[in-house]
Amino acid sequence: MTIDRAQRRGTRRVLSTLEELPPGTNTEVTVEGRSYALINDQGRLHLVRNVCPHHGAPLCFGRVQGYMLPSEPHTYDYSGDDADHRVVICPWHGYKFRLTDGRAVSDPDRMRVRSYEVLVEGDDVVAYL
Ligand code: FES
C-alpha cells in the first residue's frame, strides 16, 4: 500500500542525503532535540530512536547483522541477509532489535524501540516525524 504525502502524519524532515549514507552506515541524527539512529543496511534504510529501551544505550553504535534463528538441535540457521531478520545489536548488553519493526528478538511483545518509515525523495533521505 502506498501512502501519499497528504496522508502522512508528522512533519517532513530531511535526515541526510543518499551520498552521505552509504551501505553499512549507522549514524546518529538529531531532530528537534531527539536522537535517532539512521541505518543503511545493504541499501535498506531504517530509522529507530537512538535509545535502547533496556538501559538507554545509543543504538547508533550497535552492529547491524543477521542472527541465529530457532532451529532443530545440532543444526544452525543464520538469517544472513534476509531483510526480515536483520537486527541492530545494542552495544551495551546485546539485545537485538529487528530493523523491520523495532521489536526485540528475545521479547518481541514487551521490548521494542520505536521505528519509523524512511523514504528517499530525490537525493534526500527523509522521514515524517
Ligand atoms: S542498554 Fe541496550 S541491552 Fe542494555
From TrEMBL:
**Superkingdom of origin organism:** Bacteria
| Gene3D superfamilies (alphabetical) | Rieske [2Fe-2S] iron-sulphur domain
Record's PROSITE patterns? RIESKE
Keyword Phosphoprotein annotated: no
Q: Which residues form the Rieske domain?
A: 13-127
Record's keyword terms, sorted = 2Fe-2S, Iron, Iron-sulfur, Metal-binding
UniProt cross-references to Pfam families, sorted A to Z = Rieske
Give the matching CDD domains: Rieske
Coiled-coil ranges per the record? none
Name of the protein in question: Rieske (2Fe-2S) protein
